[in-house]
Each structure stands twice: as structure tokens, then as C-alpha cells.
Write a structure and sequence with these properties.
about 350 residues, mainly alpha, Formate dehydrogenase/DMSO reductase fold, two-stranded antiparallel ribbon, about 75% helix, globular
């Protein structure tokens, strides 16, 4: 019998891609709620908005830990390049997540003004999201590398493209957060979200167009992948599905369907994620370090894989259970987060 060759590097790439995608979707909407916090009609509305994500926000961040730990174990070269290049924005992101977490714990216990915790929740959400967008933008741009060592400057991450992706991710998270509020609330809070959603959708589409134009202009290999034949025919479904999903979302907002906009917004993120993967594949460090060059030894990958095989189903199970238990609408009369 012939031996079955298993590409552990590819398996780990899919696992990490799945973990990052789950984090973007699941922590994205509660970061989006924080971004929209200042625009709530009143303090009671902010209570409702926070209560919609209070039972699930910390569990959502499990995916960030899984993706980060998996990346370190399976692709250590990525860590050795990305961390020196993006140390400050990653540190800023973690600081934002800490501020947001503190606000969750203390806001409902505040005896006096809730303003400091409102500011902490909003600022933490905005800072963490913008920093994630900075990291994403620089990941697409690539890093100045000699051999396997980062040789760029400490502030090379500050550039026009990454600043644009930072604001773009803020718009995207705000959109899915807005659609989450529509799905989970009633009355004035939901009505406010219905008014905000079309504006946010327009912003997201604008950023999608800008990235779609800027990225191929920035790197010839990406332009060739998307616009050469026969690739053009194979990849056309991505922009077509994006347009169709946008129309479906617009119609669902007009029809005041409380549930469909949220899933449409997740679909838009999925298509953007797919477009990014198509553009960058198979390099994990742009422009020319591939997944296989950055991977750890097969023995290390196999050892870690044995643990992840059990970990991911457990995470999916308790995540599904949590969302099921806390399903339904949150109203002003709902019990607060304590």
C-alpha cells in the first residue's frame, strides 16, 4: 500500500485561517457595539446595547488566543518577523481590549456617573479595532526582510494603506455591530440601528472598492492573479456575490427584517476574507515567504494538531451552547450584566 501524504502545513494554515475568521466575526460585532456606543439615544439604550454582548464577549476572544497560539507553534518564522515589525500596534490592540474588558466589569456596578466606563468601552473598542486594521494593512503590504530577519524600522507600520485599512475595519465592525443590535434589541435602540445601518453599509462598500483598486496597483502579482485569463473567469463570483449580498442586505433593511442583515454582513466579511486569501496565497509573509518556508517541523505540527483536534470541537460546542442559551431579544427590562 502506498503511504498517504498529508500536508500538515496546509492543514495548519486552514486551522489558523478558520480561527482568525471566527475571531473577526464573533469579536467583531461586540467591538462594533462599542464603536457605536456614543451614538446611542440615551444611557438606558447603552445598557441594552452592552447587555446584548455581555454574555458572549469574553468567549469570543477565545478564537484570538487559538489563532495566536497556533501561529506561534505552526509558523514560528511569522512570529519572528511580524512581532518586531508590528510590536507597537499589537501592544496598542491588547491595551484597547483590556480597557474594554474593564468597562464590562465595572460599568454596571458604577454607583455614580457611568461616563468613565462608557469612554473606556468606546475608546477600547475603537483602539483595538483600528490597531487590528493597521496589522491587517501591513500584512497585505509586506515587510522588509533580509533572509528570515525583519530589517525595517520601528514605525514602518505607519503608512497610508494601513491607516486606510484601520478605518475600513472600524466601519466593518460597526456594520456587523449595528446589525447585531437590530437582531437583538427592540424599540428605540433597534430603530436607531436601522437608521445607522445604510450609512455604515455605504462606508464599508467604499472601503471595499478602495482596497480592491489599491491592492492590485500596489503589487503586480496580485493584479495578474485577478485580471489575467482564465483567472478572471474563475474569480468573478467573488465580486458578483458581494454585489448580490449587498442588494439582499439593502432589501432586508428596507423590509425591517431583524435577522437577515446580520447574516448578510457576516457574508460580506467572508467574501472579503476570501478575496484577501486569493490575493496573498500562498505567501504568509509578503512578498515572497510561503507557508511552507515559514512552517515549523512536521513533528511539531503533528504534536500540536493532536491537541487542536480536541480543542476546536470543545470551543465550538460551548460557543454554540452559549449563544443558544442567550438567544432572543434584549429589552430595557432585561436583567443587567453583573
Amino acid at each position: 500500500m502506498e503511504a498517504i501524504n498529508i500536508d500538515l502545513t496546509l492543514i495548519w494554515a486552514l486551522i489558523i485561517a478558520f480561527g482568525v475568521f471566527m475571531y473577526v466575526l464573533m469579536d467583531g460585532f461586540d467591538l462594533g457595539v462599542g464603536i457605536l456606543f456614543p451614538f446611542a439615544p440615551d444611557d438606558a439604550s447603552r445598557d441594552v446595547m452592552m447587555n446584548t454582548v455581555a454574555p458572549v464577549w469574553d468567549g469570543n476572544e477565545t478564537w484570538l488566543v487559538l489563532g495566536g497560539a497556533g501561529l506561534l507553534g505552526a509558523f514560528p518564522l511569522v512570529y519572528s518577523i511580524v512581532l518586531p515589525a508590528l510590536y507597537l500596534p499589537i501592544l496598542i490592540m491588547l491595551a484597547g481590549l483590556i480597557f474594554r474588558g474593564v468597562a464590562f466589569e465595572f460599568r454596571f456596578k458604577a454607583r455614580g456617573s457611568k461616563l468613565p466606563w462608557d469612554v473606556s468601552f468606546t475608546a477600547g473598542s475603537m483602539i483595538a479595532t483600528f490597531a487590528q486594521g493597521i496589522v491587517l494593512g501591513n500584512f497585505v503590504l509586506g515587510f522588509e526582510v533580509e533572509g528570515t530577519r525583519y530589517v525595517g524600522g520601528n514605525f514602518d507600520w505607519i503608512n497610508a494603506f494601513s491607516i486606510m485599512t484601520g478605518f475600513g475595519l472600524m466601519a466593518g465592525y460597526a456594520l456587523i455591530g449595528c446589525c447585531w443590535i437590530i437582531m437583538k434589541t427592540t424599540d428605540e435602540v433597534r430603530d436607531q440601528a436601522y437608521r445607522q445601518a445604510p450609512v455604515l453599509l455605504g462606508l464599508v462598500l467604499l472601503f471595499i472598492v478602495v482596497v480592491s483598486v489599491w491592492t492590485p496597483l500596489m503589487r503586480e502579482a496580485i493584479a495578474e492573479r485577478w485580471f489575467s485569463l482564465p483567472n478572471l473567469f474563475y474569480l468573478t463570483p467573488v465580486p458578483v456575490l458581494t454585489a448580490l449580498l449587498t442588494l439582499l442586505m439593502i432589501n432586508s433593511l428596507r423590509a425591517r427584517n431583524d435577522y437577515l442583515p446580520f447574516f448578510c454582513s457576516l457574508g460580506l466579511f467572508l467574501l472579503c476574507y476570501a478575496g484577501l486569501a486569493i490575493s496573498l496565497w500562498p505567501n504568509v509573509i509578503q512578498p515572497d515567504i510561503s507557508l511552507w518556508e515559514a512552517a515549523s517541523s512536521p513533528n511539531s505540527q503533528l504534536f500540536l494538531l493532536l491537541g487542536v483536534i480536541f480543542t476546536i470541537p470543545i470551543i465550538l460546542t460551548y460557543t454554540t451552547w452559549t449563544y443558544w442559551v442567550f438567544r432572543g431579544k434584549v429589552t430595557r427590562d432585561s436583567v443587567g450584566y453583573h
